[in-house]
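COURSE: Structural Biology Practicum
ASSIGNMENT: Worksheet 4, Part C
STUDENT ID: 0417
INSTRUCTIONS: Below are two proteins. For each, the amino acid sequence is given first, followed by its structure token string. Answer the questions at the end about the second protein only.

PROTEIN I
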Amino acid sequence: MDKKATIYQIAEQAGVSITTVSRVLNNSPLVTEQTKELVRAVINKNHYSPNAMARGLSLSKSKTIGVILPDITNPYFSALFIEIERYALEHDYSVLLYNTLYGSFSHSFSKTFDECDYFQMCVEKRLDGVIITGGQLDKDDISKEYKQSVNELCKSLPVVIIGQEIKGIDCLFIQRGLAKGIEILTEHLRSLGHQKIGFIGGEPGVRVTSERFNAYKDALKQAGLPYNPSYVHFSDYYVNDGYKAMQNQLKAERPTALIAINDMVAFGALRAMTDAGVAVPEDMALVSCDEFFFGAYTVPRFTSLNQQNDYLGQLAIVNLIKKINGQNDDKTVIVHEPKLVVRESCGKGL
């Protein structure tokens, strides 16, 4: 390694993350003395020093923003990213995507970066601002270290998070109305005469699952409908998860209607029901919490919730640019509600 060594090479040789190297350079108290000595030894050995020119240019605008998300193959994130990019371009900003591969999709990859490393990349590339959605922010239990990393990023760059508010993280959150969406779906199914309503999909320990599941139980209670644990089958957020969860559901006591965590799970569930000779919506109604592009072309077409990604993307960009331009306000949370789209999969009622 020569004098042109990068921070990535320093981190790899020292066996630590990029964030740790950066903290050592800034003499952060979050790093142990033993680790500091190790990293400094590697730095000295390779005559590494931060790019002074980049630091000198830090006050200029790059007209580039970063978007950090966990899985670009997930239709929710890909659709949201497209809308973010659309509105960014309208404001003359380019977008740099960081697909962190966080979660089950990353299992086939031999090497991935920690999300905190991506935060440091955004700072080093002198981005004007960052939008974060999904990943560790969606976990029910978020580590103190991760919260500190997000707050450090917020001190360096303007940040907007598309996700549920997290206590201890000081930045702007744009929340989706997760509970409200479940209320809308439950009420619609109840109006069609359904009293046995189930819930399928979603990974336990993830906030989007927990909040929707809790809202599902609350909505049943408010409607005077029974909660039956045999109507609930958690899995994950992809097609094969819906298929497997539906296979388990068909072996248990059956509800007359199911709420799927998203259209991919609903699609897998639909295939499992079709294979088992169960007709939708005649034998069982099926609705979804997240509408994806293909939901209007399945047979039957899915009744679902339009999360209005175009508006979410616009909200994120407009508020991020305000922050970039120093136009901060007192708001820390903006709540955005979904819209019910009624199609064939819920039928016309019992």
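PROTEIN II
(use this one for the questions)
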Amino acid sequence: MLRRDFGTGMLLLALARTAGATHHVPDGTPLQVLTRGRARVFVFSFGDAKDDSWATQELRRAFKASSVLWLEVSHDPGSEPDAASKREQLTRNPDGRTFFDVLEPAVRARAREYCAQLGISQERISPQRPWSAFYTINGAYWSRHKPSFQPRNPDETLTKWAKDQGKPIRYEMPSQLDFARFMAAMPDAAQSQYMTFLFDFLDDQTAGRNQNEFDWIKGDTTLAERAVERMRTRTPDLYRIMQVQRNAWWARAIDRMLTSGGTHFVGVGQMHTLGPDGIPRQLRRTAKSDQG
């Protein structure tokens, strides 16, 4: 979790109670399926992996049966003219403030400590917005704490499967420029809290509290549930954006898939499916609102 980006995977059984949908799920797996009429939506929620043990025959069959793959963020740089330059501009503060200026005092102190520990110079990180500095610090941490295995990212495997099978891929954020715009638009409080979220995770990692990070493959959501609850209580502005707003988007998208028909395969990070504002509960709210 957080070895490369935000969030990790297992959809709650509460999804079964979505109005107008029938739910089927084998116990102890991170693959769920929703049906409404002849429409089917497979939902695979995941975290980082060290091998392909998550790619069960059942999951492969579900993927093959689907006609389209949905993921969170595309690796495409963007088709706009000067997309790369525009994205680079969004990584930097536009008003002359430094990375440290944007942070709350307690977060600023933690940031300075981590930069010192990881050998990140102030000149390198100061021009960055916190959302961008998040990835600088995270990357530096993993460069110094290399795992004993080669991490594998399930979304990259799903992308390869889709290309090999000729399936279209659709995204919540269709390009890296869209992602940068989304992240840069976060207000200062959420930007600062994004760093708090990272530092809390790295503190846990250093202290050995993330030992069960691959248990999501067996359906164990313990670590991700802890992360969601900590985000909700310690970083409420960040939670509102990452959990409430983004999960509402996914709930509406899945509801449209169930209404329009066909068979869809959705791959999302585990944190987006957990807690009081996870996709399952947001989907139930969407269905109730449509009924009302």
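ANSWER KEY EXCERPT:
Q1: Confidence is low (pLDDT under 50) at residues 3-28.
Q2: Strands lie at 22-24, 31-36, 39-46, 68-73, 169-173, 263-269.
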